[in-house]
Amino acid sequence: MFTHVVGTWGRGDLLVNNAGTFGPAGEIDPQDWRRTIGVNLTGAFLCAHHAVRTMKQQDPRGGRLINNGSTFDPTHVAEAVVQMARLPLGITVPWMTIVAIGMLYGGRG
């Protein structure tokens, strides 16, 4: 995937990890558990791993990684991605957290 991105656009400046699936509820079958972990954790890790490797090889070095771990209005995530992508490569944002206020265990307060 990253070879294709660099081959097409010359750089890989942005990765948005947005894949996710709801895990099983109730009695959990180990195969369902592995599938959920595979998508939600391993998939995000592997994409970030390869993105960082690509971003380290660029000149100038760097890029943006955005991990979306929640489900809410994708417009808000897209607006944040655009703002991050517009920053100069010399600017570092260690993290950004977007929390949906309607989530059971998150929000304002």
Provide a descriptive summary of the structure in words.
The chain is mainly alpha-helical and 109 residues long. The protein has helices at residues 2-9, 30-57, 74-85, and strands at residues 14-17, 64-67. The longest helix is centred in the middle third of the chain and has 28 residues, at 30-57. The radius of gyration is 16 Å and the shape is globular. It starts with a helix and ends in a 24-residue tail after the last helix.
In brief:
With 109 residues, this protein is mainly alpha-helical. 44% of the residues lie in helices and 7% in strands.
Give the percentage of residues in beta strands.
5-15%
Taking the sheet with the most strands, its summary is: 2 strands, parallel
- The CATH architecture term is 3-Layer(aba) Sandwich
CATH superfamily: NAD(P)-binding Rossmann-like Domain
- Calculate the mean pLDDT score and round it: 81
Structural class: mainly alpha
The domain count comes to 1
Radius of gyration: 16 Å
How are strands sequenced across the largest beta sheet? 1-2
Indicate the CATH topology.
Rossmann fold
The portion of residues assigned to helices is 40-55%
Unreliable stretches covering 5 or more consecutive residues: none
**Name of the level-1 CATH class:** Alpha Beta
**SSE string, helices as H and strands as E:** HEHEH
- Terminal CA distance reads 40 Å
Q: How many H/I helices?
A: 3
State the total count of DSSP E strands. Answer: 2
